[in-house]
Specification:
single chain, 487 residues, alpha+beta, 18% helix, globular
């Protein structure tokens, strides 16, 4: 029988061989980890450079536009077929649609259909009040009507452009009124120039007036289910919108923007002016003709925006309206407002938004000889402030506080007037975005309205709303679900 003997040298060699294997594996693992870190650092550097490149391109395009150049053509050349490209020609003269749905060359210009789609919103819920009282509390034209179901809107919209001339938008809303009857409204239909020099811009047609942060937005952009109370009091249930023209200016790389507009003063959407079916201060409106340019409603707005720190953005606006009202031939209305919007993108995909708006109205009551009423004026003012926090992908919470007050009495005592009595509202909200153009929101409203005491014996009311929004469309950033869209 043969014996195998292990001498000291052989044992030492075996141990050294095993140690070398372990060391080799550790070095390999260490090298792999270092490589992963190096790749991550390189990727972050490339992403940062790409952001800087896009920012530089955007600034250059703004400068080209302000100097009267064709910024869209340059954008197509610069970005190729990325999301900013609107299309181009191939060597045979064929028009490529790029990011547009349709493009056709007419003469030496390209006509485009950029987006088309439908956004729908509906609610179901319960209010502690019924009938006219519930409708008083939910005064917005697209607010939930009361206990039960409400189709807030089915909004059809489309956008298009003619390169070198103008962009256009069209929005029509279908909804059911308080009596369940179908209603169709043309909310907006306007053209906006896209190539005027030195940052000038003209917009003409039917449009939401660019007063403040909330009024220019469509229902599918609202953070909360219903319209702020102070907006309803001053601009009516459908917001203030009319046919007119607006001149805008924004300098190259400037945080400053200016708007000046002139609009028709008559119609149901011009509540504080020559609306035919509204009353303010208990005064009966008189039907009046528009005799000259002094009978139009005029808008002025100053905007400031910028970045406070990386990932943040702030918008500050000052707005003013003036025009005639329907209580007398020489009676007029002035409305002023200030709005603030702040957005901060946080780590982990989280986001915080804060928006506030304050409005003040001075409303002149014309003399009425038939009722022995002298000329006087009343004042109304109020604000809303709201914050939303996206704490996880697709989930966010929000809260909104509102206050509406006033001074002076009309024919009706102010505290007995549902449209002018002191009012508070607080509304917490939870939102789940189940799709890019779809979400579900749960919202609670607690209202205190002094004029309710004469009707219900209490000044407070409660409501719970569950809202569903969904949309279908194609083309353009308009249908990408970006909030705060406005012309």
């Amino acid at each position: 029988m043969c014996k195998v003997q292990f001498g000291p040298f052989r044992i030492l060699s075996a141990l050294l061989f095993i140690a070398l294997i372990c060391i080799g594996q550790d070095v390999s693992a260490q090298t792999t980890a270092e490589r992963v870190k190096l790749l991550e650092a390189t990727l972050q550097d490339l992403l940062k450079r790409d952001e800087e490149k896009d920012r530089l391109i955007k600034n250059l395009l703004s400068e080209v536009k302000s100097l009267g150049g064709d910024a869209k053509a340059l954008s197509s050349t610069t970005h190729g077929k990325d999301e900013h490209d609107h299309g181009k020609h191939d060597d045979h003269g064929k028009v490529e649609t790029g990011n547009s749905l349709f493009a056709k060359k007419v003469g030496n210009k390209i006509v485009r259909l950029d987006s088309i789609g439908v956004n729908t919103a509906m609610t179901v819920g319960h209010s502690s009040e019924t009938g006219a009282v519930a409708r008083t509390l939910q005064g917005g034209g697209h607010d939930p009507d009361g206990t039960g179901f409400t189709l807030q809107t089915a909004d059809f919209g489309m956008t298009g452009s003619v390169d070198g001339y103008f962009d256009g938008e069209f929005h029509v809303a279908y909804f059911l009124d308080q009596d369940g009857e179908s209603k169709v409204e043309v909310e907006e239909a306007f053209l906006r120039t896209n190539s005027l020099p030195i940052g000038l811009e003209i917009e003409a047609g039917q449009q939401f007036l660019e007063f403040g942060a909330f009024n220019p937005s469509h229902l599918h952009d609202w953070d909360f289910i219903d319209q702020p109370v102070i907006l309803t009091r001053m601009f009516g249930g459908d917001g203030i919108r009319q046919t007119g023209v607006r001149l805008g200016w924004r300098g190259s790389n400037s945080p400053l923007g200016l708007h000046f507009g002139a609009y028709n003063s008559r119609g149901e959407t011009m509540k504080s002016f020559l609306a035919a079916d509204e009353t303010i201060g208990g005064r009966t409106f008189r039907s009046q003709d528009v005799l000259g340019f002094s009978d139009l409603v005029y808008l002025a707005r100053l905007e400031l925006n910028g970045e406070l720190w990386h990932g943040s953005h702030i918008d500050l606006g000052f707005s003013g309206l003036t025009g005639p009202n329907a209580t007398g031939n020489d009676a007029s209305t002035q409305i002023a407002g200030v709005d603030l919007r702040f957005e901060n993108k946080l780590s982990g995909g989280r986001k915080f938004n804060w928006q506030s708006e304050f409005l003040f109205r001075q409303y002149e009551l014309g003399s009425d000889n038939n009722l022995d009423l002298l000329s006087s004026h009343i004042e109304d003012y109020g604000f809303y402030t709201q914050a939303t926090y996206e704490f996880a992908p697709k989930f966010s919470v929000g809260i909104r506080y509102e206050l509406a007050m006033g001074e002076g009495h009309g024919v009706t005592d102010r505290q007995a007037d549902d449209d002018r009595a002191d009012r508070h509202r607080i509304s917490p909200m939870l939102r789940w975005a189940f799709a890019p153009l779809g979400d579900v929101r749960l919202q609670y409203n607690y209202d205190e309205l002094d004029s309710l005491d004469a009707t219900t014996g209490e000044t407070n009311a409660h409501a719970v709303w569950l809202g569903l929004r969904f949309g279908f469309g194609a083309g353009g950033e308009f249908w990408a679900g970006d909030h705060g869209h406005k012309h």
